[in-house]
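Record minuted for everyone:
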Amino acid sequence: MFTGIIEAVGTVTEVLENGSNRSFWIKSSISNQLKIDQSVAHDGVCLTVDDLKDDMHRVTAVKETLGKTNLATWALYRLINLERSMLMNGRLDGHLVQGHVDTTGNCIAVKEEAGSWLYTFSFPEQFANLLVEKGSASINGTSLTVFNVQRNSFEVAIIPYTYEHTNIHQLQPGSPVNLEFDIIGKYVLRNTQLQ
């Protein structure tokens, strides 16, 4: 379980193909603190650390993960949002994030607004009932408040700190993103559908 508060931004230093799997070596300021078999959110995708060296760690994505996330587009030097799993004795500064991506969306607009940025994202309409105005969503693992929620799009406002300390600054129209919607909303929706 994660909070959507990004700890570090890593850089992809190597991409390896192994059958239908793809492994990524990632260099970051927290890599030397990780352990093999540890769960870490990478752009919102919960992946297991399977190797370590120097200030890098390696994770592997299977075909299922590559097909349902934006990991298939990862290339050398891409910046990756990283978050270790949450501690149960700390504050929940973002929202409950599982690291299980629901779908991918696309950045469709970026507008600078005198010190902040307005991003618009599209998503498949079948997920529209999982977003509410001023609710939370995880975009590439970052917990953000959504507004102007439509049937297949929403907006987020990005403050300078988030812009500088996550990989959102590398997004531009057409960039694919990983989306995870609020787990509480999913349970509420499921409960109402069963009644």
The first strand starts at residue 8 and ends at 18. The longest helix spans residues 183-194. The CA atoms of residues 127 and 152 lie 8 Å apart.
